[in-house]
Structure formats: structure tokens, C-alpha cells
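Residues pack. One example:


***
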Amino acid sequence: MSRRTSRPRGSAPAGGAPGRTTPESPCPCGLPATYAACCGRLHSGAVAAPTCEALMRSRYTAFVVQDAGYLLRTWHPDTRPPSVDFDPALRWRGLDVLETTEGSAFHTTGTVTFRAHFTDDGRADSLHEQSRFVRHQGAWVYATAVFVD
């Protein structure tokens, strides 16, 4: 996700208020695993994202749990902002991955088109984006995005 803050311009039920995701919680990325067994492993640095879709899902989850360090570590240095600010009125509610192109262990680039659902001050909305990922020093990183709507 490309926002330098968690407030998108532009709504799969997962996520919620920061601090409510525990290791035993369902992973906010929408895959059928606990946070600890899914994106939590990537956030902790125990494993690296094997595909650009896995990185995108883990970055979405990092917005849910407000892990600015992970977001910055997985952002390409040429496009990375100095910091990530989180909007306290915004709650991420779910993720729909719509399309993935390339981005496997055999590629150096890939894209993921998704819709991330959120509420902002209680109003439901969504962010529809196509994110571009590249390999940097052997690892997948977020590079840029185009907003679809």
C-alpha cells in the first residue's frame, strides 16, 4: 500500500483497532491462518516474503497493526518516505486481492491489484490500488502504486 500515512484518498472483514491483533487472532490479510503463523512471521523478521503477493498482504497487515518499522523496511529506498503516520480515526477492515502478475521466486518484478476496506470515523470506504514490487538486494520490496479508482 502506497500511502505515506494510513489515510487513503479513496471499503472482507478483518483487521480492526490497533492492539487488538494477537498472535492467535486470524491474520488480517485474509488468509486462513493466525497472525503468528502468517504475516506475524514476516513482521518479526523470522522469514522474508517469498512472493510480491505475500509482501503486499503483510504490508496491509502492518497497516492494521500499525507496524511502521516493517512498512519502512519493506519500502524501496528510492521511494520510501522518512516516516509513516497512522490516522487514529481509520480502521482497516479487510483485503481483497484481485489480481497478481509475476512476483514469484522466479521474477524480479510483480504487481498486485487489491481493494483494501476501511472505516474512517465510522464511514466505510475502500482503496483500490495496483502496487508494483521489485527485488532489492534479494528481497521483495514495495516500489510504487497506481490508484485504480
